[in-house]
Structure formats: structure tokens, C-alpha cells
Amino acid sequence: MSTMHAAPATQGAIDRIVLPDGPIIVATDTTPASDAAFPLAHALSSRSKAEILALSIIEPMNVPIYGVDGMVVSLEPMAVSESARESSTRAQLLRLVGSDAPWPVIVRSGDAPREIASAADAMRARLVVVGRGRHKRFDRVFGGESVLRIVQLGDAPVLAVQEGLTSPPRRVVIATDFSPFSLYAAQVAMTLVAPDATVWLLHVGPSFDRSVPFLRERGNVYREQADAAFVPLRSALERPNMKLEHVMVTGSPSDQLLDFITEHDADLVVTATHGYGFIRRMMLGSVAAAMMHSAPCSVLIVPGSARAVAESRARNAPNVRTRAFDTARLDQELAAFTNRNAGRCCMVEIDQDDLGAQVLGHELPLVGTSFDRRHDDLMLMFGTSTLKGQHLTHTIPHVTDVDVTTNAGGEDQVMRIAHAGGQTLVTLL
Fold first, then answer.
1. Could you read off the pLDDT of 183-210 as tens digits, one per residue?
2. Distance between terminal CA atoms of the chain?
3. Which of 205, 285, 384, 410 is deepest in the core (most CB within 10 A)?
4. The model's pTM
């Protein structure tokens, strides 16, 4: 391996963010699985004096209409009465919060994640709260995948509440990679936690083989600079009466985070959805999915795609530079990229508009990149040999743009490849 993963750049002071000032939205399908959202949302609203409302989405189902011969002649939409759904939502509200909380109730029809995200963006909602109770296989409206879709489709933070958490969380783990996205997520989280909470800022870094001298030294430098990167973050988040600690561990981000929140009996874990920042190891989109599926506590997911995030946080990364490749010279640009980075290990993630983010591979040694101008196809090659047939090739069709982000030392960190239907990110470790 010719070049190792760069250590994090040290940041300056972190500016305070301005969060949306809209309502808290409690999204419910009126089943017991959604009950957990109501008490905590009520407590958060009472403390912040935020407006609050309940939103329920009716998802149309098609039922078969049979002819006299028993054959299906048509599929007709089975309408669920909006008034009946409103009544059941109000009954749920009365049962869980009481008569002293006359929240507005809104009922809509359509695809639940899309409608919730749309409503939250239109209202500039500060938070969407859903219950995280157990769902049967087909009770999918507020299952883990739907929560991730709400995050993917909208800009509002989504809090999935585990049963039993009825007051602001007191033991909170915030995952960070020091990117603008995870910094934003941390500051969102601090508006929700209890005043006397214990908060752990957790970073998961790469594992360095300490039996190899230059790798051991690289690991020492990485840890020193990670400690330095915690300083401005702690300064921005510290509160009177709150215990704030920072921790760095190494290994698989999802596994290490799950182990940490279990060992420390956390009642909330916080993550952003995309964390392509100073430390490239933590792919927070993948971590967010793992937390929704496996975390034993409530989960706060803050969308990294929010326009406000990029605008408000990018200025806090003065040492990071993104340069667009010249499309007229893309083959030459990619050849130069190969010369700089051949031998470095990569993580490859594809972010599709319809499916969201999926990691294609970890720890892949980069052999090279090339471009087929006839078809606008970009090839990524991974392995230990440049000989044909002795490495893996991933072809990305219909490429439109390519850019690369570098750190303060000018070392390439992330290559972003925009293409039909989404983008592919090559994170250099």
C-alpha cells in the first residue's frame, strides 16, 4: 500500500447552528408500535415550547373485484375513512398524553414515508418523531426501512423512540466523523437531551497493525489528530451540569457503536446519514441503517442531505477542498488520480436516488481508474495486480461529473462520480 489514510484535520471554532423553528411532528399509524412516540414528543414540546401535531398517513391498498366466473376483473382501491383514522389518532393521543394536549391531527393518503417527509419539509419541522415498537412483517409503515426512507426523502431529523423512553434522554452516544454532517447532527441532538445528561462523543477510526513500525506511527498520529479534532466539537457542545466525554475506538463502525451503546446502557444514539468528512472511515449512512435495525435504544438520524447542513457547516471545513475534474480531459484526470492513489485501500458506496446508499465493498486495494469516452463509462479496478483478469472491475455507466475532495495536505480523500440515477463514492482509507 503506497499511501495510508490521512489523519483528520484540526478544525477551528464551530459556529452555532440555527435549527428550523417549525413544529414537532408525531407520525403514527395508530398501532401500539407507534405509541412510544407520543410521551417523549410531548415532553420535548413542553420543554422547548414548540408547536406539535400528529400526522397519520393512510396507504391505499388494492383489493380484487371478482366476476361471476370467479375471475378477477379489476383491482379497486380500498379506501380507509379519513374520519375513522382521525378518530383513532385522537383516541391514541388521549390515551397516551391526556386531555391537556389538544394537538392538531392531520390525516393524508399516499406513500407514508414520502408524505411524512413532504409535510415535514413544507412545515420546516424541527423534528419528526416515530415509535420504534416491534412491527409485524407487513406492518411496514413505521418499520426501520420506512424511517430510513423518511430521512432519505426529507431534511428533517427523525427520532425513532424505543418503548420506555418518556422523558428527554439522559445517556446519549453521538457518533461523529468530524464532517459538517455529523457536527450538525451533534448540535441537533444537544437540543433534545436532558440538562444533566451524560453524553459520549464517539469516533470509530481505522485499525492500524501495531506490529509494523510505520503503521504504528501512523496510528499514533491519527489518534493525536483525532483528539485535537474533538476540542472544538466539545467546546461547541458543552453545557452547565452536563457530563461530556469523548472516546475513540477502532474497528468496524457499526459493530463498535453497537457494542459501546450496549455497554454504556445508552437510551439514545445519534448519527448523520452521510459523513464524508475529515475522517473518512465512518460511513454514517451505513451506520444509520445498522442503528435502526439493531440498536437497543432510541435512534436519532439527522439527514446529511439537508441543504441547510451543507450551507451552514461547509465554512467550518476551511482546510478541505473539492475540485471538479475537467470533463473534456476526464481520461487524463483519471490517469493522474490513478498515479497518485494506486495501492490505497478504498470503501466504495453507491447512492441511488430510488434505493438510497449501499456499500459495495470495504478495504478494496485500488488498481486504477479509466474512462471510455464512447459510452461515458468509468471503470474502477481493484486488486493487487494490473494484469488483465487478475483484478476486479466495476463499470459505472453514463457518467456526468467527477470531483475529488482533498485534505489540508493535498491528499485525495473522496472521489465522487455522478451518473444516471445517483452517485458513487470512492473513499480512500
1. 888 989 999 999 999 999 999 887 777 7
2. 11
3. 285
4. 0.68
